[in-house]
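Lecture notes, unit on binding sites. The following record was shown on slide 14. It pairs a sequence with flavin-adenine dinucleotide.
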Amino acid sequence: MRSPCAARGGRRRPVSAPCSHRFSCTRARHLAPSFSTRSMRETTMETHDVIVVGGGISGGLPAATYLQKAGLDVAIVEARPELGNFCPTHETWPETLDSPHASINFSGNSPAIEDLELESKYGYRIRTTPVLLGTTHRDGTNCLICYDPEQTGRSFGRHSEADGETIFEIQNRVLEKMVEMNELAFYSPHPDVGKFEEILKVCGYVFGRSIDEMSSMTAYELIELTFESDKARQTLICPVALHLQGAPLSRGQGAFAVALSLFYTTAMGIGGNEALVEAMTRCFLDHGGTIYTSCPVERVEVDDGKARAVILSEDAVYPGARIEARNAVISNVGARKTLELIGERTMDAVDSRLATKMKYWKMDERGSTVTSWLIDGEMPWGSAEFDPLVDKAHLMYRAYDSWQDAKDYVMAMINNDTWGAFGNMIEILDYAKCDPNAVSPEGYRVIRGEEAIPYPLRREGGPEAWDGPIRDEMLRRRNDVMDSIAPGFKERIIEAFQWTPIDIWRVNPAAVYGQVLGGDFSEDQWILDRMPYRMPIRRLYMSNSVWPLGLTWMAAGYNAAQVVAEDLGVRHQSWWTHRPVAWFLENIERLLEPLTIAAREPVGTGGDRP
Ligand SMILES: Cc1cc2nc3c(=O)[nH]c(=O)nc-3n(C[C@H](O)[C@H](O)[C@H](O)COP(=O)(O)OP(=O)(O)OC[C@H]3O[C@@H](n4cnc5c(N)ncnc54)[C@H](O)[C@@H]3O)c2cc1C
C-alpha cells in the first residue's frame, strides 16, 4: 500500500523541484484528522530496507541519506512535523534570521558536503570569518583563535609572548593532523580500541606530551602547564567546559578533550543553519527516500532477537500503524528513549549491563539555555580597541573573569549550583557576520547567547521552577553580563526571547533534561563507553548517545551509515570516498569571502531577496 502523506522522492525527480518535506508536513497535518478516527493498530502499512527513528540533523537524517544514496530503500519516521528538530532557522523577528539551536555550523568538518553533493547539487552554502572562536573580557581585552595560526599567535601574544609562540606551534600541529584526526576520532564508528590509542597519540603529539602524561591530567592541569596567561587559559577551556569533547575534571579525559576540541571548523549556513536540513532532505528525497512526519514511534518491535518493525503511537498521523524493516532499524532518539521503545525487559534479556546503562544514562549535567536578542545595530564589543578583529568574529565567548572563575564554574556545574555557574560562560553568535541576509532593512539583527546549565534546579525547588520567575531572572542577569563585555548592548535590545532546558526537552523527546548532545560526558560515558552503533539486538543500530556527540558535523549519522552499509554489503560506493575537513581546508579562502546581497526592493514591489 502506498502511504498517501509520506513525502516520497523519486530517482528521476528533477532536482530543481524536489518533493519537499515541508509540503509533506502540510499535507500530513491536513490528513491527520481523517486518520485519527480509525486506528491502524499493528497493520503493516509499508516495508522498507531500513527505518530510521528520528530525523535529527546529526544522526538520523545523514544516516538515512547516505544509505538511501547507497541504493537501499530507507524511511525516516519522525515524531515532529519537520525534520532537523534541533536545527531550525526562525524569522523570529521580520527579515532577520535566527538559528537558536544549532547555531554554530560545524558541517565544514563533514565529508557529507562532498559525498552527498550538498553544495554542488543541493544548494547548500556556508561562510565563516577569520576568527574560528574567541573570548572577550570585561577588562576590554580579547583572545582569538583564528584560522591563520600567525593571527592566533599574535592575539595570544598580546597576553604573553610565550603563549603566542606556544599556540602557534600547537595550531600548526593541529592543521598537520586535521584530516587524520577527524577520520580517526570523529568519522569512525566507535568503540574502536585500535583507533582509540591512535587518537590519544595524536592528542599527545599536539601538546608535546606522552600518552601516559596526558592520561593523568585534567583539562585544567594541561592548560595551566601549557599557557601562562589567564586569557589564553580561559579561551582554551571554553569548548571543554561546554562538555563538547569530554568531562573537564576527569583525569585523562579532560586533557585529551582539550586537544580534541582544537579539531573543529566553525561557520554559518547561508539563510540559516536549517539550510543544511533542507539540502540533506532534498538529497534524500531525490534518491528516492521516504519521510513520515508527525509519526511518533511508540515501540520498536523485536522478535526472535531481531529488530523487525516500528509501531507508531495512537497520535501519529497513521495511528498504531506498523512499518516493517527488512534489514535494519536505526534509533536516533538516544539511550534512554531507545530503551523505552525497545522495552526494558527485551533489552535486559539480551544484555542486562547495557540495559542498565541505558536506563541510567547521564543527561542532566548539561542542559541548555538560550537567549535570542533582537538588537539595533552592530555588537558594541568592549574589546574592539584592543583588537578590532573581534568586530569580524561570528563566534565569541564571554569566558569568566579569571582562571579561578573558570575552575569554579566547572565545580558549580558538577554540584548543580545553577547560580554559581550562570553568567560565567556564554557562547555568543552574530549571524550577520557571515550572512548579510540576517540584517533587516532597518539594521536590526539577532544575537544569540547560549549557556550550558545543570537541569535539576534542586536549590530552587526542582525542575518545575524552570517555568517560574527564573526565566526572567536569567534574562535580566544575562543582559547585565552582556552589557559588561559589550557596553551599550542593553540599550540596543529591542526584544528578547529566552529558552530553558525544559522548553528544549518539550520540543524534542530525545533531549531528556534539555541535554542536546546525546548525553553528558563522565568517567563512564566517554569514547569507549558511549552507546555502540551496532546494538546487541540484531538489526538494531544507534546514531545518538554514541561517540562523538551530536552537532551539525553529522559524524554520528555518518558512522551509523558506515556500520549499516558494511553489514548490508553496500559500503563500497565510488562517491563515498571523501575525507573529513578536506573540502573546508581546500575552500577556506572562498568561505572567508564576505557575501553581499543585492539592494532590497521595498516590501510589496515583488523584489526577491537573494
Ligand atoms: C539550544 C541548543 C543549542 C545547540 N547549539 C548547537 C550549535 O551551536 N552547533 C551545533 O552543531 N549543534 C548545536 N546543538 C546541538 C544539535 O542541534 C544537536 O546535537 C543535533 O541536532 C542532534 O541531532 P541528532 O540527530 O543527534 O538528534 P535529535 O535532533 O535529537 O533527533 C532526534 C529526533 O527524534 C525525534 N523523536 C524523538 N522521539 C521520537 C519518537 N518516539 N518517534 C519518532 N521520532 C522521535 C525528535 O523529534 C528528533 O527530531 C544545539 C542544540 C540545542 C537544542
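Take-home: The chain has two domains: 18-87+112-122+270-362+516-588, 129-264+364-507.
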